[in-house]
Amino acid sequence: MTKTSAVFPQPAAGVRPTPRVYTEEQKTMIEELRQYALSLLLPETDPYHPNERRWIEEPECPARYMRAAKWKLEDGKRRIKGTIEWRREYKPDLISAEHVKIENDSGKILLNGFDYDGRPIITMRVGRQNTQPSERQILHLIFCLERAIDYMPEGQDSMLILVDYKSATLKSNPSISTALKVLHILQDHYVERLGRAIVTNLPMLLNFFFKGIGPFLDPVTREKMKFNPNLHELIPDEHLEVEFGGKFDYEFNPDSYWEQICRHSGVNADGSRYEPEWKRAQKEQEESPKPVDSETSSTAPDLVADDDDVESSRAPSVQLPRASKPLSVKGGSSGKDGVEVIGEEEPNVLVAGA
User: Fold this and answer.
1) How many whole angstroms separate alpha carbon 265 and alpha carbon 149?
2) Residues 6 or more apart whose Cβ sits within 8 Å of residue 250
3) Is residue 155 classed as helix, strand or coil in its secondary structure?
4) pLDDT tens digit string along 210-235?
């Protein structure tokens, strides 16, 4: 196996996410929720208006909120309104990459690889904590969630989070208050984005931590979390890191990793956005005339980076306002029906690694 610092831009060969199918009644409810959300849009004169519209018009956005609300329209409206207000305050899609980069230097939260369903994998290594508890830790986690969304292939709208407790200590483990903030953000504002959550190498010493946050877990969120499943059944070997028994011999290089993630997502240092080169090429290919007898080729980006060549063009930066209020914990939760259950199930497990 050859060591590499490249970040996978797409799922393994042959992996094809299965698009969701909705009944006509469900489609009607989804569209009604979308129109409700559009009625809440900021005025066009507001700098954040394009970002808000883009988020609402994302094909699966209102569908996720209806699934979480178990197809109760009024509950769906309450949930999506709450997230719209939260996004206006914190602008998660415009978090400054430069501001949170220091949190990345140890590799404690990495986005790399895809599971067998095409879900991007976020690996949280609790033992690599390198900073003191702060709002910036939470912003870094949100930044990583947003980048995972950028990496999702067509037909997939959720991610896999792998929490590794190898070499974790009481000091490196997040506090219960920090964990509750993370839980609130995941359950309330990244509705239905968590497809699977895996916890590995959990020491007995930290069992009390999960008991402390267990009562705050949504039942369906808890159902998605598994202890020590067979990772080979979930992740292709070529996307599973060597330390977890796979064939992906990944060598973390902070600057190379950060450049690749931001370049693929089209994120400037100040958090402003531009259309990445691979997406422009994809659009051109989709719009170009196709020969009658030719097969349609895959338009997935091919961006496995050369570590010596991670420079790319940048669109002009547009400075937008950032939130100054501290993150707060609010009530509410969300869930998902029909989640595949894989691996050994344990109660009261939280994804924590901010």
Assistant:
1) 9
2) 3, 4, 5, 112, 241, 242
3) coil
4) 565 566 667 777 788 888 899 999 99
